[in-house]
């Protein structure tokens, strides 16, 4: 699955403005924060054309070059002084490996 990128997007509404964070859900329901690195990009869009109000946010996670260990559950959290809200999604699939026989 070389060079296949995956985009996970969530539209959030929050006032006061929430702190947003993506997580990979690990064994035991532990959360590993995901930030910009060589395999992940995190984007917060505060304007998406004219479709968003002042309190709306598009929060996007890009997984670069999807691999088998990327499969699993992801969580997106929004936190402000009024509370915490979380949404989860499960990513699953198959990795196909091609072998080339050389004689």
Q: What does this 3D model show about the protein?
A:
It contains no helices and 7 strands. The chain is 0% helix and 50% strand. A 4-stranded antiparallel β-sheet has the order 3-2-6-7, with no helix packed on it. Strands 1-5-4 form a 3-stranded antiparallel β-sheet, with no helix packed on it. Strand 6 (72-80) and strand 7 (83-91) form a beta hairpin. The protein has a single domain (6-91), classed as Immunoglobulins (Immunoglobulin-like), CATH 2.60.40.10. By secondary structure, the chain is mainly β.
Key structural traits:
single chain; 103 residues; Immunoglobulin-like; mainly beta; three-stranded antiparallel sheet
Q: Tell me the CATH architecture.
A: Sandwich
Query: Given this structure, which CATH class is correct?
Result: Mainly Beta
Strand order of the largest sheet: 3-2-6-7
Average per-residue pLDDT, rounded, comes to 84
Structural class: mainly beta
Unreliably modeled segments: none
**H/I helix tally:** 0
CATH topology: Immunoglobulin-like
How many beta-strand elements? 7
Please identify which CATH superfamily we are dealing with.
Answer: Immunoglobulins
Order of helices and strands: EEEEEEE
**What's the helical proportion of residues?**
under 10%
Counted up, domains total: 1
Tell me about the biggest sheet?
4 strands, antiparallel
Task: Please tell me how large the radius of gyration is.
Answer: 17 Å
Shape: elongated
Q: In angstroms, what separates the terminal alpha carbons?
A: 25 Å
Share in β-strands = over 45%
């Amino acid at each position: 699955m070389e060079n296949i990128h995956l985009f996970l997007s969530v539209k959030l509404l929050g006032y006061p403005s929430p702190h947003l964070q993506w997580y990979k859900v690990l064994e035991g329901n532990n959360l590993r924060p995901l930030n910009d690195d060589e395999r992940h990009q995190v984007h917060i869009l505060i304007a998406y054309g004219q479709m968003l109000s002042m309190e709306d946010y598009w929060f996007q996670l890009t997984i670069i070059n999807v691999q088998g260990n990327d499969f699993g559950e992801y969580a997106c959290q929004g936190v402000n002084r009024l509370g915490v809200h979380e949404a989860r999604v499960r990513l699953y699939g198959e990795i196909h490996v091609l072998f080339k026989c050389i004689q």
